[in-house]
Amino acid sequence: MAGGEQEALQTIEAQLEERGIRKDIDVTLLYLSDRNLKEVCDLGRFKILRYLWLNGNKLRRIDCILNNFRLSELYLENNELIDISGALGHLTCLQVLMLHNNQLTKLEEVVRELRPMQALRVLNLFNNPLAQENEYRSYVIHNLPSVELLDRQEVLQSERDRAWRMYEQEQYLLRETIAFGRRAEGLPPRTRSQDRHTRPSTIPEKDVVANNFDMPPHENPNHAVALRSVSRAVMQYSMFDWSKVPKSEQRRLAEGSPELPQIMTIRFK
């Protein structure tokens, strides 16, 4: 065991003895901060560990918590971390993560590692080189939607909307060009004197086409909805009038050809 790991182990044993804890299963929190540690021993023996302080050391990588799946708060600030890939993604219960004041440079890799943490609410990444990248905050907000407090600042709904417009441009433009999902006032009321088969006067004749999907985008969503309503396909239902079908006895006694059954057809838009 390396010297740093041995020092960490001695610190842990001293804490357990001081608190009178004899079983690893009873350990829910550990303080290993400000010890100038370069390495930390495997903490997998503490199966229900929930709170861990490793801040204020000289850690460059973090590989001591690969079997601590129940962590909810992890403090790694003020270290020398250069990479967290493969080290934190399994912590799906994590709610608070402090990573500020480190040497993390690859924003996309860091965000990819944190993406499985759907319970993450508080995240600090400031004072890392990656925080200097363009649109850093918007990128993190968009890819980690559960985060409510980023770098000590509340995530506002306006920031979420801006990030969505920035990184989901195709969906944003599509939503802006169609009227579905919006409230539509519909066509103006008709009078009895108006012919039912004439098109509404509010819609230009040249805009009415047979196929609605070939229409160009309309600036006015209500205009698009009204236009669609008058060009919907006609639906038709046909019913067989069984009351007009003669029974076998009636067919035998009838003189001449029996009356043909009637088919009733209903059409509507």
TrEMBL record:
Say which domain of life the source belongs to: Eukaryota
Where does the record place Basic and acidic residues bias? 192-204
Region feature (Disordered): 184-204
InterPro entries according to UniProt: Leu-rich_rpt (IPR001611), LRC72 (IPR042655), LRR_dom_sf (IPR032675)
User: This protein is called what?
Assistant: Leucine-rich repeat-containing protein 72-like
What organism is this sequence from?
Branchiostoma floridae
